[in-house]
Amino acid sequence: MRDDGLTRHPCEMDERRTIKVSKYLSKHLRHQPERIGLALDEAGWVEIDTLIAAAAAHNFRFTREELDHVVAANDKKRFAVDGTRIRASQGHSVEVDLGLPQATPPPYLFHGTVDRFLDAIRAEGLRPMNRHAVHLSADRETATRVGARRGRPVVLPVDSAAMDRDGHVFHVSANGVWLTEAVPPRYLRFSEPR
Ligand code: HQG
Question: How many whole angstroms separate alpha carbon 114 and alpha carbon 147?
Fold first, then answer.
């Protein structure tokens, strides 16, 4: 069976196909544009036509309608469309300057992780690892889901008010993810009841 979806109407796009296209977009708009010969501009944007053609040339076919469906239906609003262009709203490992506004965080933000990282996090705080920034959530539920990708979730509250007072810079992405360069251990609360 062909899985390129070209013959299907976008409304018939099932969840598996939507997720598959979404993952493909994430991979090439955040991490490996060069894999399909794509060049993102300095803010991470690429022409949608160019993206569709580059993907097709690498045997992954989807239509503009399907792309629009994926962008609109995406559970986390991972992608932003601006006229003829698209970019990932956050989560990049490639060098981009998203030009996000600086923002004052709420008093507490939350980071979802798992037990096995806690010793390292206690020692060195939260680091961006492969991404550009540490990702923080505005609510516990979201942080719990982020942690649960890796195992039994552990949610660490972050004293973002204190970080803000101490001059740490925060940005908020178009899809509501809070980003900061690093979170030193003193701003983390480890005494969460399990
Ligand atoms: C951990 C997904 C050891 C950190 C999610 C995390 C989010 C450390 C992992 C977004 C550490 C990095 C980001 C340290 C942090 N030592 N481990 N010093 N500091 N860590 O995926 O926050 O589906 O880069 O706890 O929903 O898990 O892609 O970050 O476990 O919003 O849109 O190192 O990615 O969104 O992992 O997730 P990640 P994250 P998307």
Answer: 6
Q: Which residues fall within 8 angstroms of residue 10, CB to CB, at 6 or more apart?
A: 63, 65, 66, 68, 69
Q: Is the pLDDT of residue 74 over 90?
A: no
135 C-alpha to ligand 1 centroid (Å): 7
Quote the ligand 1 centre to 91 CA distance (angstroms): 9
Q: Give per-residue pLDDT as tens, 4-31.
A: 544 455 456 889 999 999 999 999 999 9
Q: What domains are defined for the chain?
A: 10-88 (1.10.10.970), 108-187 (3.20.170.30)
Q: Which helix (H) or strand (E) holds 158?
A: strand 153-159
128 CA distance to ligand 1 middle (Å): 7
Please give the Cα distance from 133 to 126 (Å, whole number): 10
Protein residues with CB under 6 Å of any ligand 1 atom: 76, 78, 91, 113, 117, 120-121, 124, 126-127, 129-131, 135, 146, 150, 177
